[in-house]
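[step 3/7] inverse_fold.run input=structure_tokens len=387
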């Protein structure tokens, strides 16, 4: 049974991996009328991979985003008269509550522990952070009581919400994006290690650049794929002597990410030990595993459980560049063991850490609110890459 489902965001890019690439495309491939309302330039409507994308004008600042943009998003959302609304930002909680008052089904998708994240936002005055953190937590509590359900990106995040209304939909990788990568020629690859994602100090980029300078292997390089969030930080890193051993690729498409990982010897995910990262499950970790790469990861309890159980990499202190360098050098010196770790990680993704399984979880959760549940199952392997 075809349903109209609307996903909403004012913060994330319209082609966000979790929202568009995984959730929206999967639902559209399963036969539903899927709309996505998100900021983009230029604005306008388009259809990508059967998803109807309503691109709203990008707000000029945060104040405009939580006022004018949110109002515009709510107006358009209510006009669509969907069977289910699924929104992805805490600042859209008031809009979600309004949709509930209009009588619609609403789901809140919690990507991160936002109250904890606010406490570490340096652009906010120190006195304001605790107040905003508590206010956001109270708003989330109110929303959790009002909304039909809450989708959480990790188990630690889910524990904040009522057990009867929550489900965990992990941000695992899409198998088809890395299906052509093999480990047959692993020992013939360049001595490159990769980091893909947001490029910021709190994600450990300063330590990664310093670590590649500590590597004992003369041909070792660090490949970076992503955007710098702060131009001043980009300039700072480019002035460092270690930058000569960095290959900066800029923003990469999904295909370009797969191509880059297919030529590397390890994937790096050494986010700093901030509370929001300690309880997170970054998609890059599972993309490295899907690509058959051994990982060098921060030694956080949640990540340790994944890496140690699968025997797919090495754990390090993310604040210690020498420890990161020692781990990558060990992988360079032991190509057979590194290749075995990569195969272990790939096997773990095939068996457990994949989006197909998570989409089934999301589909079953949707069934609680909509009839005709069979239509929500994705036929495995049928989703095409985004344009």
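[step 3/7] decode complete -> sequence:
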């Amino acid at each position: 049974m075809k349903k109209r489902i609307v996903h909403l965001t004012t913060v994330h890019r319209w082609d966000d991996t979790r929202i568009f690439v995984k959730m929206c495309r999967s639902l559209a491939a399963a036969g539903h009328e899927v709309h996505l309302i998100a900021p983009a330039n230029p604005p306008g409507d388009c259809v990508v991979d059967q998803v109807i994308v309503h691109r709203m004008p990008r707000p000029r600042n945060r104040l405009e985003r939580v006022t004018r943009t949110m109002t515009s998003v709510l107006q358009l959302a209510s006009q669509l008269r969907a069977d289910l609304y699924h929104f992805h930002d805490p600042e859209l909680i008031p809009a979600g509550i309004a949709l509930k008052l209009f009588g619609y089904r609403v789901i809140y998708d919690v990507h991160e522990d936002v109250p904890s994240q606010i406490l570490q936002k340096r652009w906010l005055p120190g006195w304001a952070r605790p107040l905003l953190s508590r206010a956001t937590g109270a708003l989330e509590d109110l929303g959790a009581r009002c909304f039909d359900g809450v989708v959480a990106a990790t188990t630690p995040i889910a524990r904040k919400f009522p057990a009867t209304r929550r489900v965990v939909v992990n941000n695992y990788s899409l198998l088809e994006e890395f299906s052509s990568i093999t480990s047959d020629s692993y020992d013939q690859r360049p001595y490159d290690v990769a980091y893909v994602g947001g490029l910021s100090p709190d994600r450990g980029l300063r330590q990664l650049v310093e670590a590649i300078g500590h590597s004992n292997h003369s041909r070792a390089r660090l490949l970076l794929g992503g955007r710098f969030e702060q131009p001043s930080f980009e300039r700072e890193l480019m002035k460092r002597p270690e930058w000569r051993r960095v290959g900066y690729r800029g923003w990469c498409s999904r295909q370009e990410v797969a191509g880059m990982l297919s030529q590397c010897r390890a994937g790096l995910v050494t986010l700093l030990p901030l509370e929001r990262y300690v309880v997170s499950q970054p998609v890059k970790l599972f993309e490295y595993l899907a690509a058959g790469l051994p990982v060098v990861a921060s030694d956080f309890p949640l990540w340790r459980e994944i890496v140690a159980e699968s025997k797919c990499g090495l754990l390090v202190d993310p604040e210690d560049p020498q420890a990161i360098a020692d781990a990558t050098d060990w992988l360079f010196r032991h190509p057979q063991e590194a290749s075995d770790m990569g195969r272990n990680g790939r096997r773990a993704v095939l068996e457990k850490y994949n989006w197909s399984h998570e989409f089934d979880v999301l589909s079953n959760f949707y069934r609680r609110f909509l009839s005709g549940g069979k239509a929500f199952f994705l036929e495995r392997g049928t989703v095409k890459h985004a344009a």
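[step 4/7] annotate
The chain has a mean pLDDT of 90.
The first helix runs from residue 17 to 29.
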